[in-house]
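Continuing the series of single-chain predictions for the mutant panel. This is the parent chain; the variants come on the following pages.
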Amino acid sequence: MQHCESSDPKTVDVFISHASEDKNTIARPLAEALNSRGLSVWYDEYTLKLGDSLREKIDQGVASCRFGVVILSPEFFSKAWPQRELDGLVAREAAQGGKLILPVWHRVSKAEIMRFSPRRAFQGTSGQHSFSMAS
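Parent structure:
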C-alpha cells in the first residue's frame, strides 16, 4: 500500500490515537480509508520504524497534525500511551483554540465516556452508529 506523504514533511492531516487492541477492528481500516482519499496520516504502522524513539515520533505526530482522531474504547481508557497522546492533543487544542480533536466512540457508552472525560461525552461519533469507509 502506498501511503500519502504530506507536502510539508513536518505536517500531517490526521494523527490516529488508538489502543493496540483496536488496531484491526477500526484503527487500520480508518487509516487506510483516510489515506486512500489522499490525506496524510500519522499512524504507527505507517510512521514508526525499528529503532525510532517512540516518544519522540509520537510527540512529532501530535505536534504536527491538523487533526487528531482519538478512538475512545474500553482498551483506550485502560492504557497510558493513548491517554498521553490525548493529553498532548488537548493541550494543543487549548493553546491554539479551534477544533483539533475528533473523537470516535468505539464500543463505549456515554456513561463510560462520562466517567473518563465528561467534556468528551458530548463530542464524537458514537460506536452505535455505523459509517462507511467505502469510496
